[in-house]
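Repro:
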Amino acid sequence: MKYALIAAAGLLAAAGAAHAQMRGPDPDADRNGKVTLAEFKKAQADAMLGRMDADRDGRITRAEAKAMTDRAKAMGRPEAGQRMEMMFARFDASKDGALSRAEIEASAGPRFTAADANGDGWLSRSELSAMRQRGNRAD
């Protein structure tokens, strides 16, 4: 029984660390308790490029996105491919088949606006939490 409790505690700790890592770094760069649009855009682009830009050239190609969505589908997230296709359709402004940092940052604007529940121009911890519970979507 004691070993089962220790094992369960270890699994919970690992799951918590994995969950925190998936959320990405804290977007409140200046640690003032307010996440501005600029901070949010940078954090979103840093996280997305960090996860998906396999060759580290500062762009996410369709091939890099496909590799990531294939992994997500294998983990039981069949909607991942559709969301990525929508992102390319909406935010690949240059239509070059890749998302640049600027294009990724532009895609963060609608999510920021949707998450800013009280319209004060910055995100609080509770607004960030609510956004994450929705799955980081603007809808």
